[in-house]
Amino acid sequence: MGNVLFQVDSIVSVIIGAAWLAFPEWLLHRQVLVHLNESHEFCARFMGTDFLTSYVVSNHALHWTKSTDRLVAIDARFIICVLTLIAQIWSQYAYSDHWNASHWIGISLISTWTMITVLLRLHATTQIRPVKEKAKLH
Questions:
Q1: pLDDT tens digits, residue range 61-115?
Q2: How many CB atoms lie within 10 A of CB 91?
Q3: SS3 at position 32
Q4: How many domains does the chain divide into?
Q5: Contact 88, 105 (CB under 8 A)
Q6: For residue 47, what are the domain limits?
């Protein structure tokens, strides 16, 4: 189960990262009602790079032998997802005049990704607990 969730996380990070790198103007113009300049495109591409490069950590975490080491990758993904989700929700309310209805699509996608990360964290935690108990017995 854990490997499947890690692989889903890796695939999602590649898809979302590549989309923000390749089509930042198209993605942004579909969400906002204001004129965007090059700085918006730069920030969107930077976010895409962040998601795309985080694939490396998720992918390599599959090969780490200690389950506790995998928690580092999971916690890092969780922080990225939660901060992105908070920023999107805050901007939706703070600048409600500038966003159109399709902005909620992005919020629902990052919410789904955050939930996958939470499931992965819960699964990893339940896998670590029996290992620690066995270590105490020996």
A1: 778 888 778 888 888 888 888 988 898 888 888 777 877 777 777 788 888 888 9
A2: 16
A3: strand
A4: 1
A5: no
A6: 2-137
